[in-house]
Amino acid sequence: MFTTLSIYAKIFQHRQSTEKNANGLPVVDQFIALQDITLQANESKNISFDWEIPSWTTRGTYQLATFVISSEKYNLLGLSFTDDIVGNVHDFEIVSDRINGVQFDKETVTINSIPYLFAGYPTRIQKSEDALINAEIVNTTDITQRIPVSYSLYQWDAISKENKLEEKTITVTVPANSTAPVSFVVQDTVYPVYLVELRAKYQDTSSILNIRFVRDSIDKLRINFPAITTYPLEKDTQVELFSCMHNISANAVDASLQLSVLDENGNVVYSDEYVGTIGGNMMGFATTFSPKTTLENFSIKAELFQEGTLIEEDTISYTCNDFGTCPDTSMDTSLLAKLWFIFIMTGIAVVIIIVGLLIKTILSAKAQRKNKKYEQTF
Question: How far is CA 297 from each of CA 169, 325, 326, rounded to the nearest angstrom?
């Protein structure tokens, strides 16, 4: 089963030419379409979301591509940071009177003067050198356009907001029926993988470039999808706890991975550790245990250490609320009505008994006073 799944979507525009292009289709929009989806084992769900077509969109054939991501980190279907490795796709037509606009030309993108391929392995540069990114914006309208271009720099990918390192916006003037250059320099040298997202805005439309590159010889370990094999955790029933991990560079480094299961109060139910080396190839660590009690609300925690320093950690929660398996504590309304009626009638009966006892006590007291008075007269 999965928890905290997200659906990421990209909208591509088909070219008029049917010839396959190594840079893939132009991107006109990308966004998180749905979040917080949970699936039990062997479960499927029908989902839907809306995409509002910008009013200045040019007519033509477009493509919706979807990606499935877990915990805003782990790509389960397609790679969200690419334009060619996608999940499910669907083509659709947009009917419009508009035939001209402004967008990036993917064929002109370079990193340090090296042509960038959007449907290929990321460009590799030296560990400490600047990355000069160049591109051109094409204006097919007959009016000079002033185009806002936003620049966002991320480490690894753009799904998690925590990965954003820098952002800024400039304005580029593009002459009518012409092009204009745009360039940015990435000077950050801390991380092994960077993603630059460039977004040009024309009226209410967008043109987007996702440019990803690698710095050589920077070791950075990464967790990839910690999980369990069954839910809930049944008492005395064996369950497998696992996680994948890898070094973003090709080097093997000393490392350790700590996997723990915590109950809803944060107490450690089970823990195990991998100690050894982690290299560039994806590897996995799995361990089995049998819980002493049944757990429906718990979490798993993964902690990855690189040469003794905590590099990354992730906690994934599992609750019966997420999966809709919590016991129904609500009572039937008819039963509540019956119980309420019994409560009221019992209360009335108790009041009648108490009143009766009070009357009896008062009458008895009056009789005793009369007897005493009679005895005194004689």
Answer: 45, 11, 10
